[in-house]
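hey so u asked for the seq, here:
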Amino acid sequence: MGYVVSKEAFDQVLQKLGEKYRLYAPVRKVGEGRFTDTDVVRYDFVNRLEDMELDAKSDYAFKEILTPLSQTLFFFTEGETKEADMDISDAIVFLRACDLHAVKSLDDIYLRNRFEDPFYKKIREHIKFALIGCASSFENCFCVDMGTNVAPDDYIFSIDAAGDQVKSAVCSDEVAEIFESISAKKEDVTPAHVTENPVHVEIPDQIPNSIFKSDIWDEYSSRCIGCGRCNIVCPTCTCFTMQDTFYSENGKVGERRRVAASCMINGYTNVAGGGQYRKSQGERMRFKVLHKISDHKKRFGHNMCVGCGRCDDVCPEYIKFSNIINKVDNAVEEEGR
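ran it, structure tokens below
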């Protein structure tokens, strides 16, 4: 079931949804980019269609609403602990097909990885998703080869804005009632999706252990500067660390925070006694890449990387994740000859 409405009428839909839900979507922040006089597209709360940036890929993913960059888990004193209050109000997140696939990976890690994370679960239970259609590919995207160009059926409605009209495929009775209340025109609607990318990747079905010792990782020990930007913008990176903040000198009163961290940043694999599991950037790149295109699939049945290309967009050293995937594939082929 679908509807076609004017942009003004669609704002009425958003207004009615906004009475119950917070609406979270990509927004263009003018002049707030990394360089002088540049913009950045990141997620924020919206009220109208014109607040949303629908013509550009967001520089940062949606995941901060599910996994905040810094989240207080609990407070502690000498004799007791108190779980921190959380904002668990209902929200609708507008995202593209690749990012909707990324939600599956976040759920894998936090809900299906041996046990359920209670802090993630509390937020996740109050989140619904709206699909932003993709009429054409963006730079560095390779979602078609990753199989994430068509959205899974996990959204309540879609949005494709063209000219003065908005087309929506509606999968929720609640949303359908809102469209009906404004006398929206019924029409069969299929959300727009990408069928071709300028970037292509080949992922090997099986990756032998010998790839761990391959020299393809060596160049990244010098090229990668360990800034961690790729991890921060990635919609499926879930690494975090714990930080205790103390309010008193005796160290017995304070709070524990979960803070976003990165497998690519120096110090993440440090352990007690001064040990470090992955010292070079090449070793860290190997861990990240194989986790994205092999290890996660072995456990959960699908690749972690969704081909959004944000890591390629943001890397200051112009390292392309898509190129690394193809280098792995070439190395595996050479091993088999």
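The longest strand covers residues 22-29. The chain has a mean pLDDT of 94.
lmk if thats what u needed
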